[in-house]
Amino acid sequence: MKIDAFAHILTPNYYQKMLDIDPDIPDKYPFLKIKALTDIDYRLANWPDPHLKQVISFANLNVEDFVIPDQSADICRQANEEMEEIVKKHLDKFEAGVGMLPMNNIPAARAILQEISDSKYLVGAQIFTRHLGKSIAALEYRPVLAAAAKLNVPLWLHPVFDKRKPDNNLIFSWEYELSQAMLQLVQSDIFEEYPNLKILVHHAGAMVSFFSGRINQILDEQHADDFKNFYVDTAILGNPPALQLTLDYFGINHVLYATDAPFGVAPFGADEIVTAAVEDLDISDLYDNKIFKTNYEHFVE
């Protein structure tokens, strides 16, 4: 059994709600046109591996960018309820869901974290490298991170573009944004204040393992070591040497199998090449199983 810890979906009712708010969304965000992202029946009928279950989070169409705070909270709650129903209906395919937070409404975001903590089908909440143009490490978002730590609700960290930059691209920009957000979180002393905070960083922790020498030489020892508190996934579209570097840096207990499905490889995702990359690592079968399954189970317990 494999658990894909970072896969994506746009639930039908939520997507329709967003289209009602802004009908031009598909033109603004072309990646949303991937059929397996929005058509659940199509996705289920073409499941890549009978031994695979996915943990599904919303594709980064953030309600806070479109509506006022009260409406944002209402839509998030409705979307999370819809996510729960989808997981409950398809437990043979979906391991769990990851909830959405209205980050333009911090009190509501904290309350929704409590709802996620009480949920049977949601195991965490998704945050982004930037919200409303501000770093996730900004002080105004600290109460959300604090609540997640207190409630033991894991957070899934996904990148978004910094809209101040004129040359954003999917190849390099998101990896920079992830790395920068990790640095900003570390330098905010988040792990000193909340040492039990659990954050899963998409795309294998981006640039961090490759630039670990610079991290260790430029930062003080405490902050350099704090990078090891992050959990990371395997969603880098194969590349066993890079994945080995990720494993060597973050450690066997902090690397979770994930593919970014259905993105990466058309039409359903990169399960085959990511699985092959994990199996190509210089580790035992026991450690393979930690990456494929048990690290996720420990992450959400």
UniProtKB/TrEMBL annotation:
Coiled-coil spans in chain: none
Ranges of residues in domain Amidohydrolase-related: 72-293
Name of protein: Amidohydrolase-related domain-containing protein
InterPro entries, A to Z: ACMSD, Amidohydro-rel, Metal_Hydrolase
Keyword flag Lyase: yes
Keyword set includes Nuclease: no
Keywords: Lyase
